[in-house]
Amino acid sequence: MAAATSTSSTALAHPKTLNPASKSAAAGSVSFPAAQPPCPLAASAGGRRRRGAVAAKVSSPQVIGATMPSLDFETSVFKKEKVSLAGHDEYIVRGGRNLFPLLPEAFKGIKQIGVIGWGSQGPAQAQNLRDSLAEAKSDIVVKIGLRKGSKSFEEARAAGFTEESGTLGDIWETISSSDLLLLLISDAAQADNYEEIFSHMKPNSILGLSHGFLLGHLQSVGLDFPKNISVVAVCPKGMGPSVRRLYVQGKEVNGAGINSSFAVHQDVDGRATDVALGWSVALGSPFTFATTLEQEYRSDIFGERGILLGAVHGIVEALFRRYTEHGMDEDSAYKNTVECITGIISKTISKKGMLEVYNSLTEEGKKQFIEAYSAAYYPCMDILYECYEDVSSGSEIRSVVLAGRRFYEKEGLPAFPMGTLINTYVEGILLGAVHGIVEALFRRYTEHGMDEDSAYKNTVECITGIISKTIAKKGMLEVYNSLTEEGKKQFIEAYSAAYYPCMDILYECYEDVSSGSEIRSVVLAGRRFYEKEGLPAFPMGNIDQTRYVEGGERVRSTRPAGDLGPLHPFTAGVYVALMMAQIEVLRKKGHSYSEIINESLIESVDSLNPFMHARGVAFMVDNCSTTARLGSRKWAPRFDYILTQQAFVTVDKNAPVNQDLISNFFSDPVHSAIEVCAQLRPTVDISVPADADFVRPELRQSS
User: Fold this and answer.
1) Where would I find the KARI N-terminal Rossmann domain in this sequence (predicted)?
2) Number of structural domains, the chain?
């Protein structure tokens, strides 16, 4: 039996699937939507677009209900293990270098693995696969395929891939000769070039994706994959640099790496499940859990705009502003926002869960936590729900495609590239939601009298340091439990105030993804990166111009080695409220607990926050995919605004805490599921040195 699928396990799942390209397929044999200006990848094919390779019209995508899907699968190569997460049984495959000898069996019939693209995931996955197969003494070739003239050729050669060895070559030749094709180019480029890509694939070959975006785009235009290829996905729960860094760090530690989800969307010959699991094991995934391609793109695109990137950026901006406005100096505000979230909060959640964040506070801190949580939960929920709806409807996908096209000169107008985040005070925080949170908190703390360095420490440092570490090791409750009594009070106030505003935006975001709007947005954005119709390109612009850039650099330059930053209870309450709101949206939308916890918690505290903790929000955001970078820029201001306008004013007006909300937080079954997942986390903590050769070249920095 095939693995969990988003349709059925066979190629007959879609009665109107498109006939993939055989080279002799008649052009124009199916009808297509109006052509859009292509990304440069299409131009490199010399105009050889074969429309016979794309899918025909299919019915509208199925609406996923609130029932968690059954995600059982069968494998003849690896050991399947059942885990119980909050009363729901799921199945995983544990990874480890001891499994590398099984890779030749998993990849039976595969002589060449083609890796297309050299962006965030491409370099990491290609090198990990090559090294794992070499350790397994396999003769399978891992070959990089790039556009002629691409500047990435030199980077690929530097990583050990060469034309002479047959491991580096032209994109179209690589596609045509590969048995397993890993399509790791940008989402917008996939949307603009899938016809030509399908037309060059061999019959019965396997298309491998690390994101379900292409399915979302095809659904939004009424198409599907060709029926004579298998389609699988392995989706690491972290940016490409994390995938490579943890693999290298763990060479002497069995099982070190990034957790991954896998899906089998289409299986033409019964091999797809074992191939996908072999791919995941070869990447170094400590454990691999099942999902569907549709659920993956919804949770992933939504998550990047939520707690992983956009929301955390918005949070630290809002908190930094709040703390400085209330009298905190800027360095302290940075420590109590960015450092707090990426340090002690992330570490606590990673190791012990969310409750430990609260439990570690003093009594006064617990009071602040509760106030912040109560105030922030529903505003966060508001935006999160909007975001999910945008993704689900297809709007966010369309937005990404369109934005990608602005990155290049067109119609006589200049390009509008994404700006780096390297100069912001909150450089390197997470993506959208965390970006928004730290912006709002930084502003709040400085407005309340905190100096800017302290505000940075209590936003960026707090979230990426002690909070992330605590959540990673012990869960969210440990963040609360580690506070003083006064800190617990602040936590509760912040949580109560922030939960529903965060939920608001998170829900919107999920709906945008689910509907296809966010997917359309990504596709359209991608097309704006290139010159077209006489207009210039509109690449992504800078997002690193806020005032806590210098403060962040100051704080990090004087931070003792191993210092996780302060545990500010108000910051903790807002951040945990955001995390819980995102968990609730995904749960109500029917996602499995393994996917919920990986997309909302593990990826955040174990993969992304460490990059923000090391060098700021821009370093974190701009090491991610184009789709993630676009989403962070779009949604971070939403979280910043709603927290400032709804959550913080609730606290300032001394509104009563929402006790039901707080009670639900302490008793939520997700905490027991987090405890189980904590046992499956990477065996080493990621280390991000100043001169990191595994990140994007433009973001490298000599020590």
Assistant:
1) 93-291
2) 3
| 272 & 156 share domain | yes
Q: Check if the beta carbon of residue 472 is closer than 8 Å to that of residue 617.
A: no
* Token pair in block for residue 397: 């996908």
How many residues are there in the chain? 703
What local confidence, expressed as pLDDT, does residue 177 receive?
97
According to the model, what pLDDT value does residue 391 have?
A: 81
377 domain residue, yes or no: yes
Whether 275 and 144 share a structural domain: yes
Residues 518 and 611 in one domain: no
Looking at residue 45, its pLDDT comes to 33
State which amino acid sits at residue 196: E
In this structure, the answer to whether residues 364 and 502 fall within a common structural domain is: no
- Condensed to tens digits (0 to 9), the pLDDT of residues 259-316 reads 899 999 999 999 999 999 999 999 999 999 999 998 888 888 888 888 888 899 899 9
> Is 187 inside a domain boundary?
yes
- In this structure, the answer to whether residues 209 and 317 fall within a common structural domain is no
Residue 20 structure tokens: 């993939």
Three-state SS letters, 259-326: CEEEEEEEECCCCHHHHHHHHHHHHCCCEEEECCHHHHHHHHHHHHHCCCCHHHHHHHHHHHHHHHEE
Cβ–Cβ < 8 Å for 530, 40: yes
Which parts of the chain register pLDDT below 50?
Answer: 1-65, 411-414, 416, 419-430, 702-703
Model-level pTM?
0.69
pLDDT recorded at residue 32: 24
Q: Are 690 and 557 in contact (CB under 8 A)?
A: no
On whether the CB atoms of residues 343 and 482 are closer than 8 A, the answer is no
170 is in an annotated binding site: no
Residue 427 annotated as lining a ligand binding site: no
Neighbouring CB atoms inside 10 A of 110's CB total 20
- Catalytic entry in 14, 88, 200, 211: 211
Same-domain status, 592 and 485: no
114 three-class SS: strand
Q: Is 300 annotated as a binding residue?
A: yes
Q: Which 3 state secondary structure label does DSSP give 501?
A: helix
Active site residue 211: yes
* DSSP string across 611-662: HHHHH-HHHHHTTS-HHHHHHHHHHHHHHHHHIIIIIHHHHHTTPPP-HHHH
Tell me if 304 is assigned to a ligand binding site: yes
Containing structural domain, residue 269? 80-287
**What pLDDT is recorded for position 119?**
87
Give the model's pLDDT for residue 545. Answer: 63
Report yes or no: 420 and 315 within 8 Å, Cβ to Cβ. Answer: no
Contacts of 249 (CB under 8 A, 6+ apart): 256, 684, 686, 687
Is 230 marked within a binding site? no
Shared domain for 636 and 671, answered yes or no, is yes
Residue where a domain stops, chosen among 287, 319, 338: 287
- Is 535 part of a structural domain of the chain? no
Residue that terminates a domain, selected from 287, 312, 328: 287
Give counts: helices (H), strands (E), the chain.
32, 20
Rounded to a whole number of angstroms, the distance between the first and last alpha carbons of the chain is 52
Which pLDDT score is estimated for 609? 87
Asked whether residue 249 is assigned to any structural domain, the reply reads yes
353 and 283, same structural domain? no
pLDDT at 432: 75
